Each structure stands twice: as C-alpha cells, then as structure tokens.
Amino acid sequence: MDIFPQPDTTADMSEFAISATASLQERRSRTLKYGDMFAVFDQNGDLALGGGGVEGLYASDTRHLSQLDLRLSGARPILLSSTTRDDNATLTCDLTNPDLYDADGTVLDHDLIHIRRTKFLFTAVCHERLAIRNFSGARQRRRLEIRFDADFADLFEVRGQRRSRRGRIQRPAIGPDCVTLAYTGLDDRRRTTRLRFDPAPDLVEPGRAVFDLDLPPGGRAVLYVEIRADADPPPVPAGYAFFHDIRLARRELRHSASRAASVATSNQIFNEAVRRSVSDLSMLLTETPQGPYPYAGIPWYSTAFGRDAIITALQMLWMDPAIARGVLSYLAANQATARDPAADAEPGKILHEVRRGEMAELGEVPFRRYYGSVDSTPLFVMLAGAYLKRTGDLATLARLWPHIEAAIGWMQEYGDRDGDGFIEYYRMTENGLANQGWKDSHDSIFHADGAGAEGPIALCEVQGYAYAALLAASRIAKALERPGRAQTLAHSAKQLRHRIDEVFWCEDIGTYALALDGAKRPCRVRSSNAGHLLMAGVPSPKRAAAVTAQMMGSASFSGWGIRTIASGEARYNPMSYHNGSVWPHDNAMVALGFSRYGLRREAARILEGLFQACIYIELRRLPELVCGFPRRRGQGPTSYPVACAPQAWSAAAQLSLLQSCLGIGFDLEARTVIFDRPVMPSSLDEITLRNLAIGDARIDVRLACVNDSVAMCVLSRSGEISATLRS
C-alpha cells in the first residue's frame, strides 16, 4: 500500500487550539446541559455582553444567545449566592438590589428586594423563573429589564477561530410576549432563537423586555422566560411549560443515576465529590438512537467524541454497563466505510469527533464527521471485549462483530501502512490534526533534546491498545464460536506484545519510549503514556514495577497525580496542556494498570491525590486537567485556564480509581462480585457499594478498614448473586 505524504508535525499546527484570552476559572461559570443544548452563565445567571467570553446558550455548536442581562431600576443586582443542584437539574441564583437612587433623590438601601432566578434546560429550551420579593416597609415601583442578544457565533469562533465572512443577522420579529432572533448562515440555513415571556412585558423591543413592577410591602411577583433554539413554542403559557418540563427533566436525571451502582463512604467530602461525578455524568449523557452516549465536556467538547466516550465507558463499566453498550452501538453506526482524506477517514476507522455548526457544515473546520484519532479504533475493540467480560451480552457482540472485524482490518492495513507491526498516524491533508493521539497538542510528541518528532508517529500507548484489542477480539471470536479466527488474533497479539517490549523499552530512562518517529527513532521521554501499557497488560511484572517506580517518583507524581511529562524533560512545563499537567482520566487509566499488576497501594495514592485536589475545587468537580506544579501543604492545585468542567472522563476518574483500589471484578459464571486484595484509600474508613449488578441480580456490599486490612459484609441482595473478598 502507498504511504501518503506526511505534513511536518514540528510546525505550529495550533490553528484549532483554544484561545486563552481569559481564564474559565477566573469567571467561575455555571453550566447546564441537556441533549445537544448547553449553557454557560456567570454567577448572576447572566450571559455577559462582550469581552470575548464563552458565556452563552448553545445548541448544535451555535451560540443561540450571547447576552442575557438582568437590571433592576437600571442597576445590576448584587450576587448573594449561586449554585447548581447536586443533581445538576437546576441553577439557582439569589440576588438583591444595590443602593438605588431615584430621580427625586430618595434612596432605596441595598438588600431590600430579593430576586431568585431558577434556570434549567430541557430538550431545546432554556427555562427561567424569576421570583421578586419586596422586603422593605414601603411600596416599591421598580423597573425590571431583561436585555438580550444573539450573535449566532459558531463554537469555533468562540474558541478563537477567525472567519473572513459571516452570514446575515436578520431583523428581530416582535410580538406582545415574544421576540424571535434569526440568522441566515453562509450554509443557507436559518437559525432562530425565540424568547417568550409570561406574563407579557410592559414593553418589548429589539434587545430588551421591560416589566414595571408594583410591589407592596412583603409583596412578590413571578415572571417566566423561555428561550427556544430553532423551535416554536407550544400553545401553553411559559409558566406552565416551566413546571411541566422541570418534572420531566428531574425524572430523567433520577432514572439515569438509578441505573448505575452507587457509592457512599465514611468521608462526607468524598461523598460530595462522588455525587458530583455521578451527576455530571448523568448530565453529559445524551440519548442517541443507539443508546446513552457521554458527550465529552463543557464548553468546548459538548458533542460526540470517540476516544473520550470509549474511555469514559471503560471507566464506568463496573458501575453502569449500559453506557458502554450505547457507545459501542453509536460508534459502530458511524464507523468509516470509505477513504475520505478531508475527514482523515479510512474503512473500519472509528470516529474522532462530530460537529453540527455552520463552520463544520461549510468545511471551514474539518470536524463535521472527523476520524483523525489513531487510538479510537483499537480502544473501540478493547471496550467491546471488556463489555462482553462484564455482561456476557453475546447478542450485542454478535451484532457488533462485523464492525470489530472492520476495526481490526483498519489496524492491520491502514494503521500499519509500512508493515512494521506498529500503528502510526499521519494526517491526509494540511487541515487535519497534526497529532492524533490523546495528547494532540502540536508540541506534545518530541525527543529527549526537545526536537519535535517528525511523522508518521507510533505512540507507545496505541501499540498497547492494539495488543489489548487483538486479545479482546480473540476472546469475542471464541465466544461467538469462531475458533480459527480466535487463534489467529491471539497469535497476532502475542507477536505484537513481544515487538512493543523489544522496540519501545528504554533501559536508560527506566520506562518505555513516548513514541517512535518516522525514522523509527524512539522518543526517550518519561511520560504518563507508558502507564497505559500497564493497563493493556504489555510489560513483564519486572518492567511494570520499574515503570510504576518511575511514575510514582517526584519527577512524575506531583502530589495531585501523575504528570503527563516528567519534570526535567526538555519540554516540561507544568502550565502546558500536555507537557507536564495532571489529567484525572490519564491517572485513572494508569491506575487501572497498577491494579492489573496488583499494585493497589499505588492506585490508592493516585486516588488520594485527586481527592485532596477536589477539596479545594468548587462543587468538588474535577476539571479536565490541572497544572502540574508540586503539591504544597495547605494549598490547592493550580488551575489550568481553559480546562473544561464538567468533563466526562474526569468525572468518571474517581469512580474508576475506586475500582482499581478495591480490585473489583465480576465472575459471570459463578455470578460473583470479586474484591481482589482491596486497599482502602487513607481518607476512607468505610465504603458502601449498592446496586452492583450481574444481569438482573443486585447486591449491596460494605467494606471497612480493620487494622491494616479490609473486611467485607453483604448488606442485601436480590437474585442469584454473591460477593467474595480475596486477601
């Protein structure tokens, strides 16, 4: 097969990077999501006008509302508190008046008028209820003004992409209780935002709605605002729709959360962190025709990503296998069937990213349906094998088998186009991503002297995924009574494992090379990537111990977690995206590797580090990443300025780490939940796991720290299921 030319990956290929003109941490934003709509508000519940901020109401990668600005008698209310519910169902902002000076010189002192804003998303609608109460001893006639605007910016514009041309903003259509904002894009698609008010405002005009309030002492007024993206409202008042939809939204969140196992511990702060993780995952799960699918993160990645969803599903497999089934089914339905250079697509390749915005539709960015990730395909097969082992669901695997075979075909034909046994990546056009592993920054793959690696590049962890994928496919083939195919795949896996160990191991740095460049020279850089080889089961026990010792040393382990790149390496920078930062999902995958080799105390150290980080982070929500500065006593982690929060694989990280510490496994034939040599994290004395499932059977288990060991008791069970502790 011809080898396609590889663009120079050492050049600055950061055209799709996220612009860091302002820190998301500085803004302390509030986020909501439902389906393909998400919102980023400031703490007051407003959408700030101007300043290049990310705030907005988004649907299908378009900002449908860029300004929502509340004013009382011309002044911005003072923030009292702002929080999302534990289940992420609603955002509640409590506000009050500042000192208000009237035209006649009278003054209304601050803190006499209370405003409570309650917001939530459901389907393609943002609902808001405003409850205003007068706590002064006098009648208050006050003007409440809601200012609004929609720039209909594509998400990539918000991220920092510049466009030479844009579509046309249309003149607003105004009714007695509503305003419709519209935009016709260069793709000839008309996008609309419809605001509806209940009761009808005293004045509606382009850009604002005005309510003249008359509040007696102790009196109150309630207003409703409904914002719809590309949809007309139902023939019911906005207030009725608010209560109808909020019941449905909360019911769906409860159903999603109840499907999974639950965790409660002796540490209340840890419980808060776990509840937030589960709630974030429930919010990020999006129903597709193929089942639940975790969108990657807010604000930049609220869409279907292949790699992110697979890793999230792997992390959550012990708690909720339905996520894995939804992910596998969706990715199979969207698997590439033909070669398309613009999309970096080849037959059998698994999706990287889907976008629905104007710029993607026009090809201004290549991500409309993009396949430029080298690891999604072997990870897909890995997940299929893990799902079978966890559930025994042969019917689903039989349906997926042609897609698994196509994925293996891509790995062995297109992925390994030079025939050396390793999967390399390259991009087919100058518009594709230059680096196509999970560390996809333009500067993330380099040699020990800091020189950038020229492609095609073979990443070490991708070879581990390929090895694990071949073994997984062999087990699936055997279960589907294809013994010849199973044997062939197992033999290929054995050969690949030997080759990885032979070529990637670097005795001088005590770990595996980050990658091989296009000349097959190893990048002798200490990285977290090598830990993923442990998860795949590649190293011998001796080499696994060496990799673990290197990763848990001070150069790699910051105290919060393992750095992507060890300090002392040429491009180490604790503030970089991929060259020295700490990523929770990366740490969770490394910990799965530690646990595989029985190194559960090391896994527990990682869990403890990330949990301690949670103590300092608002809402106990682990972000996409934190900076890799060393942990200091009495201080929290250093935030990364444009990290997504919530992020699916970060939310799942602590839950996955619990599995690694406790050695949780499932013996389907014996219908037994196994706790293999569990280690309790130092912050926890007791852990209760409820609703652990094998098929339709359920069991609740409590684990407690007794001296230096762990004891177990079964609290309840339904169906044929048991639990056992191996010490």
Could you characterize what this model shows?
The protein has 727 residues and is α+β, with helices and mostly antiparallel strands. Helices cover 30% and strands 25% of the residues. β21 and β22 (291-294) form a beta hairpin. α14 (584-596) runs parallel beside α17. The protein has three domains: 26-252, Glycoside hydrolase, family 65, N-terminal domain (Beta-galactosidase, Chain A, domain 5); 260-662, Glycosyltransferase (Alpha/alpha barrel), CATH 1.50.10.10; 663-727, Maltose phosphorylase, domain 3 (Sandwich), CATH 2.60.420.
What are the salient characteristics of this protein?
727 residues, alpha+beta, Beta-galactosidase, Chain A, domain 5, Glycosyltransferase, Maltose phosphorylase, domain 3, nine-stranded antiparallel sheet, 17 helices, globular
Radius of gyration, in angstroms, nearest whole number: 27 Å
How much helix is in the residues?
Answer: 25-40%
Q: Sheet with the most strands?
A: 9 strands, antiparallel
Strand content: 15-25%
| CATH-assigned fold name of the largest domain | Glycosyltransferase
Write the topology of this structure.
Elements: H1 24-27, E1 30-34, E2 37-41, E3 56-59, E4 62-65, E5 67-72, E6 78-84, E7 91-96, E8 100-101, E9 107-108, E10 113-122, E11 125-134, E12 140-149, H2 155-158, E13 168-169, E14 173-174, E15 178-184, E16 190-198, E17 203-205, E18 208-215, E19 220-229, H3 238-259, E20 262-265, H4 268-284, E21 285-288, E22 291-294, H5 306-316, H6 321-333, E23 353-354, H7 358-362, E24 369-370, H8 376-391, H9 394-412, E25 458-459, H10 460-479, H11 483-504, E26 505-506, E27 511-512, E28 515-516, H12 529-536, H13 541-551, H14 584-596, H15 600-616, H16 648-651, H17 653-662, E29 664-667, E30 672-676, E31 686-694, E32 697-706, E33 709-718, E34 722-726
Parallel strand pairs: 30-34
Antiparallel strand pairs: 1-2, 2-3, 3-4, 5-12, 6-7, 7-10, 8-9, 10-11, 11-19, 12-18, 13-15, 14-15, 15-16, 16-19, 17-18, 20-31, 21-22, 23-24, 25-28, 26-27, 29-30, 31-32, 32-33
Helix pairs in contact: 5-6, 5-8, 5-17, 6-8, 6-9, 8-9, 8-10, 9-10, 10-11, 10-12, 12-14, 14-15, 14-17, 15-17
